[in-house]
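Private note to self, pasted from the team thread so I don't lose it. Backbone tokens:
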């Protein structure tokens, strides 16, 4: 009997050798965009195993932890401890059946987490009249998403929605099923229910990107996905089913993993396309890192830095064949994150994040980050329902704008703390 009969062991060894070879290769700058290019947002459930050439998938081996590494408290990246798996369960009270949606969430302290807004979107409300969401952290054991969505992990934590980056959305409820949020506004703020909160020393701290071109780092959970007809149809005929399955396995789905690739900041045009940015305050961070469906909400950082600069939300492509989206080589097809270093995020942090902090050290660090961001117009028509209550803190003062027909027009946050 061969000692390599165990298929998973063979795959692990092959992955190890392939990763060792890849890390020895010189790093290349793949950004060769010389002029503005309009891009189309891919359907988010189809994001996005990238292409190395027109005929071949990108070879990418994500790094993950073994059980021994977890016991020894080793870390892949400082953002690893802030990264959680999110599962949302929409169910019918009449049939006791439901649907599961999933993603990632990033812990930022005092029980708050950032995630992609589309990850907390309701399914058809006429059918599924109840909804709940849970987060859990698994560093070496695969996540069972249906079990998590029903709160059946002993260490999972239920979360509620308390805000959206897009100020037009109702701020204190799950996103309605008939709403579409632009990719550069696709961010929501969650709060863990109860008193069982993660330690604040595990929270992700925000920072500006160091330059327009960076070495981006992805930290998050990719989900195991089926290689079905809709997925295969987006790729050239030269890409076979076995190639897609191998590429998905290499992302280490179901556990937190890390990968690095070329990255660059982009701005969103009025038509929804992307173009080259000339400042670190631009809307989107694009990068040459493959992901699978379910990776939305993952943390994006920089190589050799420990801070959070963005959150993975979508894929963009310039390639179309009729009405069908096609995945091409980078940068014509690229995965993308919301950049935290924007005027829009500053407004959001002032009205939604800073007032929630109880930890003075964390609040101080966030205030310093927010002070670096450019100013923008205040959000309009921020809507809360009648049961929503602002969480006031004795160290904060609030200047409230007028309330018109139940719509919160504007709120200015002021801190008495001195950092």
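Design output:
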């Amino acid at each position: 009997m061969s000692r390599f009969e165990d298929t998973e062991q063979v795959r692990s060894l092959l992955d190890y050798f392939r990763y060792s070879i890849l890390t020895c290769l010189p790093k290349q700058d793949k950004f060769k965009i010389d002029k503005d290019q309009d891009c189309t947002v891919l359907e988010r459930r189809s994001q996005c195993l990238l292409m190395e050439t027109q005929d071949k998938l990108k070879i990418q081996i994500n790094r993950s932890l073994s059980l021994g590494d977890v016991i020894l408290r080793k870390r892949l990246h400082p953002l690893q401890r802030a990264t959680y798996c999110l599962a949302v369960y929409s169910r019918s009270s009449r049939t006791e059946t439901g649907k599961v949606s999933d993603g990632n969430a990033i812990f930022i302290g005092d029980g708050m987490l950032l995630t992609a807004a589309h990850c907390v979107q309701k399914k058809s409300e006429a059918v599924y009249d109840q909804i709940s969401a849970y987060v859990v952290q698994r560093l070496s054991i695969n996540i069972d998403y249906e079990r998590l969505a029903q709160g059946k992990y002993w260490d999972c934590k239920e979360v509620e929605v308390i805000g959206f980056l897009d100020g037009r959305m109702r701020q204190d409820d799950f996103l309605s099923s008939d709403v579409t949020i632009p990719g550069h506004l696709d961010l929501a703020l969650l709060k863990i229910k109860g008193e069982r909160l993660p330690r604040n020393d595990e929270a992700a701290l925000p920072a500006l990107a160091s330059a327009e071109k960076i070495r981006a780092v992805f930290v998050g959970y990719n989900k195991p996905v089926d290689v079905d007809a809709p997925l295969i149809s987006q790729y050239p005929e030269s890409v076979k089913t076995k190639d897609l399955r191998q590429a998905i396995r290499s992302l280490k789905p179901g556990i937190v993993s890390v990968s690095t690739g070329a990255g660059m900041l982009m701005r969103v045009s009025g038509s929804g396309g992307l173009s080259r940015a000339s400042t670190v305050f631009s809307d989107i961070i694009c990068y040459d890192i493959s992901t699978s469906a379910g990776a939305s909400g993952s943390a994006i950082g920089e190589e050799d830095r420990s801070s959070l600069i963005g959150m993975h939300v979508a894929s963009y492509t310039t390639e179309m064949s009729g009405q069908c989206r096609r995945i091409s080589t980078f940068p014509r097809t690229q995965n993308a994150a919301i950049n935290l270093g924007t005027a829009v995020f500053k407004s959001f942090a002032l009205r939604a994040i800073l007032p929630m902090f109880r930890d003075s050290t964390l609040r101080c660090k966030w205030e310093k980050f927010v002070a670096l961001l450019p100013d923008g117009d205040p959000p309009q028509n921020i809507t809360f329902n009648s049961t929503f209550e602002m969480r006031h803190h004795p160290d904060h003062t609030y200047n409230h704008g007028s309330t018109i027909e139940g719509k919160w027009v504007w709120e200015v946050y002021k801190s008495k703390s001195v950092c």
